[in-house]
Design a protein that fits this description.
about 35% strand, globular, alpha+beta, about 25% helix, 7-stranded mixed beta sheet, 4 helices, Aminopeptidase
Length: about 150
């Protein structure tokens, strides 16, 4: 069984893997970006692409985060290749620990479709607190705004 081993920074070589996960019909709540947009975001110093790897160094998930300001980071997306094995939760814990080293950073926030109850539950179990709702960004959808306060 594949399990989470470590997190590393993403590169342009990871774009095919990232797009394959984005296009998987099981990831219905994730927006898809073009190859060019991923290249642009990878080159943008306000974005961080993180790749989850198994013990053999194979990618098994990714996360994209964006600094909105010096002390605030938006968790844009996370996808793991296999659900139900604790990979996503372990990866998220590692990502939170990675950013906890940034002493200027105070808050990591995200929005999630309210109907994606599984994700809302996972985020809450990791310490994210619901701080609001958004009814305008995605027509016909309710997004839950959640924040994680770094120590």
């Amino acid at each position: 069984m594949t399990s989470f081993h470590r997190t590393r920074l993403g590169t342009e070589d990871d774009i095919f893997f990232i797009q394959a996960l984005e296009m998987d019909p099981a990831n219905q709540y994730v927006h898809r970006w073009s190859e060019n947009l991923h290249k642009k975001k990878l080159a943008d110093t306000t974005y961080r692409y993180l790749i989850a790897e198994d013990v053999e160094g194979r990618p098994i998930g990714f996360a994209i985060l964006n600094y909105n300001s010096a002390d605030r980071l938006e968790w844009r997306r996370i996808i793991v290749a296999r659900r139900g094995f604790g990979i996503g939760r372990a990866f998220m814990r590692d990502v939170l620990a990675y950013f906890a080293r940034d002493k200027a950073l105070k808050t990591i926030w995200l929005d999630v479709y309210a109907r994606n109850e599984r994700a809302v539950h996972v985020y809450a179990s990791l310490g994210f607190k619901q701080t609001g709702e958004d009814h305008t960004s995605v027509p016909g959808e309710q997004l839950v705004i959640m924040e994680y306060l770094l120590p």
